[in-house]
């Protein structure tokens, strides 16, 4: 659920946003630019409510928020080997870590934090930021492709297992052991993602024509969807809905595809005695005698619904979320636009565009501007008098942080309460600064 641009042109569309990502439960949008970063709440169709903005760190190319908490992870082109973790309501840096090469991607849930380099993956315990494992036996991964289950009760990790084929390595983030390898595609991987419970894993290859879904942890193929046949595309985003009923894929084309995860039973009811029903039976029977590739193509499911974009060739990410009690398709693009569509979960078809939030600078849409205007610095945040007493949400949650001495609710983390106060910041700052160069277990 993230898009990055390491080398975008100076100015123009691609320079508007250097990165953008949805959080783990698709309730927040984070964007990074040359000036800093911003966080938005996705609770309304009509407007984007800015949760936080900062220009303390310029040239941000990775920004990830932990669910709706005040913990945010930022990486800048000015220090591409350094990960910075902030508590944005308090305006404090929780910790920073430096690595042996440039950071390509970061994934996190309530128990684990993954840092992906081109030839290594680092797994941290997010409660104290202790480095638990360094995975070194990985093929070169120049795009930083990896996935982490947002369900902290399993914390499965997936990453490419080959330079030439679409092999996926499934890794257990708890036991810190490899679970299995999945021969997902003939070509190299372009996208991988877990569903919310961590029981399914979806993948797409660089061809972008076929999307497959596998069971976790045994790696059995459950579904196979065909995105298209006429042309190869670059899949830029692949994401399950939170209820795991739908799978959404966006690419460098003008069409976003939504697939419905449902199995058709083998014992189909008798087709009506019509010409259409007769031809359908004939095609199904003929598929048994056709070459495997043709037969597989005939049996692959097509998109349940689509969303039409008014552009192609731009970096974008998509997600499926429930906003104001209705299912929506959201697409964020590199030029600073957020498109919101209605999704009919029963009949599918073409999704209807209902709102576009742009990065204009007129008075009318300033509040919806995705580009940084005058975000507050951390120094300004610290200097501002505390308003925590007005908070109505307890703990480390949507209000942006915890009150002094308050205990993080257990549902925020896998085990045990953690105290959030000025003297004992989460995670303890004293344990969180330093370089990660062969400090812990390696594999």
Automatic annotation (TrEMBL):
Gene3D superfamilies named among the record's database cross-references: YVTN repeat-like/Quinoprotein amine dehydrogenase
InterPro entries given in the database record: PROPPIN, WD40/YVTN_repeat-like_dom_sf, WD40_repeat_dom_sf, WD40_rpt
Keyword Nucleotide-binding: no
Chief localisation class: cytoplasm
Positions of region (Disordered): 380-403
GO biological process: autophagosome assembly; cellular response to starvation; positive regulation of autophagosome assembly; vesicle targeting, trans-Golgi to endosome
GO molecular function: nuclear androgen receptor binding; nuclear estrogen receptor binding; phosphatidylinositol-3,5-bisphosphate binding; phosphatidylinositol-3-phosphate binding; protein-macromolecule adaptor activity; signaling receptor binding
Family the entry assigns: Belongs to the WD repeat PROPPIN family.
PANTHER family to which the protein is assigned, alphabetical: WD-REPEAT PROTEIN INTERACTING WITH PHOSPHOINOSIDES WIPI -RELATED
Protein name, UniProt field: WD repeat domain phosphoinositide-interacting protein 1
Species the sequence originates in: Ursus americanus
Encoding gene, per UniProt annotation: WIPI1
């Amino acid at each position: 659920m993230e898009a990055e641009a390491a080398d975008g042109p100076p100015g123009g569309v691609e320079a508007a946003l250097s990165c953008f990502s949805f959080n783990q439960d698709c309730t927040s949008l984070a964007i990074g630019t040359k000036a800093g970063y911003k966080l938005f709440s996705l609770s309304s169709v009509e407007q984007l409510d800015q949760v936080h903005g900062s220009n303390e760190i310029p040239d941000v190319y990775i920004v990830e928020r932990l669910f709706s908490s005040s913990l945010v992870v930022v990486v800048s082109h000015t220090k591409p080997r350094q990960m910075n973790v902030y508590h944005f309501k308090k305006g404090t840096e929780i910790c920073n870590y430096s690595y042996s090469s440039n950071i390509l991607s970061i994934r996190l849930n309530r128990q684990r934090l993954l840092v992906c380099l081109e030839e290594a993956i680092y797994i941290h315990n997010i409660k104290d930021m202790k480095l638990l494992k360094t995975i070194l036996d990985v093929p070169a991964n120049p795009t930083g492709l990896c996935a982490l289950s947002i369900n902290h009760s399993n914390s499965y990790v997936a990453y490419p297992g080959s330079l030439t084929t679409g092999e996926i390595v499934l890794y257990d983030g708890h036991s810190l052991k490899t679970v299995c390898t999945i021969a997902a595609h003939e070509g190299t991987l372009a996208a991988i993602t877990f569903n919310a419970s961590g029981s399914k894993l979806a993948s797409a290859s660089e061809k972008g024509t076929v999307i497959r879904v596998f069971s976790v942890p045994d790696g059995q193929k459950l579904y196979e969807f065909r995105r298209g046949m006429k042309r190869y595309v670059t899949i830029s985003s692949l994401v399950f809905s939170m209820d795991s009923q739908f799978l959404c894929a966006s690419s460098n084309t003008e069409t976003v595809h939504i697939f419905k995860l449902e199995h058709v039973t083998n014992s189909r009811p008798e087709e009506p005695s019509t010409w259409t029903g007769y031809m359908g039976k004939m095609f199904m029977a003929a598929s048994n005698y056709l070459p495997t590739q043709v037969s597989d193509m005939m049996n692959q499911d097509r998109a349940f619904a689509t969303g039409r974009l008014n552009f192609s060739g731009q970096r974008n990410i998509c997600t499926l979320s429930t906003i104001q009690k209705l299912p929506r398709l959201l697409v964020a693009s590199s030029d600073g636009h957020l498109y919101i569509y209605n999704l009919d979960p029963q009949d599918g078809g073409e999704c209807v565009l209902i709102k576009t939030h742009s990065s204009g600078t007129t008075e009318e849409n300033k509040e919806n501007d995705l580009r940084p205007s005058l975000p507050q610095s951390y120094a300004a945040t610290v200097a501002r008098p505390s308003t925590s007493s007005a908070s109505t949400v307890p703990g480390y949650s949507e209000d942006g942080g915890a009150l002094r001495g308050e205990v993080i609710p257990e549902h925020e983390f896998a085990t045990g309460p953690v105290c959030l106060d000025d003297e004992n910041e989460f995670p303890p700052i004293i344990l969180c600064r330093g370089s990660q160069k062969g400090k812990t277990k390696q594999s």
